[in-house]
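Morning, I've got a small favour to ask if you have a moment. You're getting the sequence in one-letter code plus the fold written as tokens. Thanks so much in advance, here it is:

===
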Amino acid sequence: MTKPLFFAILLSGFILAGSPQGARAQVSAAEPDGSIPWFTVQNDVLVVRTGSKAKPLGKDVTLPNGVRVEYRTQSVLLTNGSRVALREGDMLSLNGEFIRKPAAQVAEPAIVAVANVPAPTEAPVAVPRPAPVAPPAFSYHPAAPVNGKLRGVVELGASGFNLFIIRVDEKRNWKLEKSEFGNSLVMENMATEADIRNGLKAYIGQMLDFGVAGRDIHFVVSSGAAMAEVTRKIVKGLEALKYVVTTVTPKQEGEYGLRAALPAAFANQAFLVDMGSGNTKLAWLQNGQPQVKATYGAKYYEKNADPAVVAADVKAKAGQVPAAQRSTCFIIGGVPYELAKAARQGKESFTVLRAPGAYPELTGAKAQAGLNIYQAVAEATGCQQFVFGYDTNFTIGYLLSLP
């Protein structure tokens, strides 16, 4: 789908019947125009459909009025922060019409005009499921660095490149100054060596322009990415640019993640879960020393692993977390980010996740696999407070470990 189509959208005053605004909606029996593209859920996949042709939506789309269509959550995020989940058969057009497929099968779906008009008396529209109650806020504020220096790192992960720039002082207090995620199709085997080199040069250029000295730019290959054959292309591209690449083990990832994500005040009462695509690390401090256990990652389905077997292994590893350190879990990774984003109440630095079963809006193999891992950790530890930190990544812990 091209950008001109997106900017042709006329969805001013996007208001749905039953939405949190309490607006009313008009219902008609018109058929959708086959020449106009529609967002619709088809076989549990959010697609863009024009006539008889359908293409899966591969990224979030922000409309001109600020409304966002989210492909991962298969929902529409309104400008006031409320969310409307799309059900199978629902359709959202580019000309401002929303079709809500009735829960009970009828001959024709009703078309809801997206406008603030009086409600009809003859055809009520189904009210979307209310959002789950948000967990309490996590009010922790780390100490800010004093006269710190800039350091940058590029994570070569199993699902793409991530960039982080931090400012860190002599006491290892740090602050995230810049981050960028997923600038790569390497792991999908859709990038050439030239693509890799150009992408890495772009990241290096960003860090240099931001003020990071060349000697303070680092590259880290995650343990999940290291298992992929295509990783050698990444390393080759970096070596051609005279950079050194550090490949880390799952144990090192857990140790670095613990260093970055676990505040000193929680050292004796919390543990870490770093849920990557290739593996998941559970880590905690015992007598001041990091303990790390690795288990399946959120893409275990690509290896045809049985979810029950995965859950059992996760529970066995999570069950080793000391009882005194199960009150809080700091959790990071791609799927936890999606869980946190769905529950975020603004721009807070930390979000307490909802319970594993309270994410009916999340679909897709990776999200479901991540929820299975999350559920297993929760059941094994009894932890009631899983805290996601938006500014944390294990590669930041790597930077904090440097002299």
User: Anything to note?
Assistant: The chain has three domains: 3-113, 149-249, 256-392.
